[in-house]
Amino acid sequence: MGASKANKPAVLIKKLKNNHYQLIVNNKPYVIKGVCYNPVPIGQGHDYDWWADPYKPWLVDGKLMQEMGVNTIRVYKDGTDGESVKQAIGDLYKLYGIRTVMGHWLGFWHYPCPLYADVDFQDTIRQEVLNMVKAYKDEPGILMWVLGNENNYSFNGAVNSWSCPRIDEEQDPIKRVAMRAEIYYSFVNSLAKEIHAIDPNHPVVLGNGEAKYLEYAALVCPDIDAIGCIIYRGRNFANLFNGIRFTFDKPVIFTEFGADSYDAFKDKEDQNMQAFFLESQWREIYQNLANNKEGAGNCLGGLSFEWTDEWWKNKEYDPDSFKVHDTGSNWSNPGFYMDNQAKDGKNMNEEWFGIVALSDTEIESGLNKRIPRKAYYIIRDFWKNPLLKSKKKK
Questions:
Q1: Is the pLDDT confidence value at 393 over 90?
Q2: What DSSP assignment string belongs to 154-181?
Q3: CA-based torsion, 246, 148, 13, 385: positive or negative
């Protein structure tokens, strides 16, 4: 990471003699036990700047997280006011011992499309990223940086398609995908190198949808420190850990995973279903941590999606719907088999992923009251004694 032995980074990833990977924070092993955090209140949408919320939601949430055992949050972007961002990061760390994984979208939702082949577009995003790093790198609560999210889904045109004349001239669709991957991942690697130059104390993570296209990243992304995977496969992660060992041997962090609490088939909330999936997922994460003989030893932990429900999610184009806890779904996932018999197989309820529910009738400290779901307690108990839980499940 660019620091000498005499001046070790505050946060580093160590490769052990058995080729396992371990996250080290202040000279001690650190397992990421985290949640994705975006505390948008009922009635607000995706553009709400919660960092500047006068009610400071992180103070209420931080206490609940601490009691659960959360030691890390992931945020997808910083706010518009740097001082507010610093206060939230600082409060979470100083009051509750919770560190922050700071992310950047890398312009993925830029309109009309993210032009990763365009030099001017790259320069704009580069400046945003480096400004972010410079602004927060000295905050004691920062754990690491995540570059991108599911940007690789644009390579085949599935989401936010982009191109350039050179790609347009290529007739082979497989080669076009490879060209986009090389351009994008090379850009991410250049960002990682520049971040390391100004901040040798925090790892840089490649945010990736699934393990898709990592064979291309392996060729052009030597300077990233870890792979951040967004994974929704159901109760387990199949061959993911060993697959990444073979494809791109870097440590793995789950930057998103989880289960919703709504049964789309029975058309009612099912907290037992959510808790069952999350406990199973966390158990597999622990099996693949360093020095566990049962797994690949390349996992550093995970960040469950998500802390609180997002009531704006299903119809983000309709502000009137932000006050309604929508039970609709617009995508399916057979891995979550308990409600996959729902109409058209659409069983993923975007507004119900919270480990903590929000009340639309009760207010606490100026915020929608937080109501922990069963998953909150199940994960809390698992983190307290994962070995006992593993023995019970055998």
A1: no
A2: GTTTSSS----HHHHH---HHHHHHHHH
A3: negative
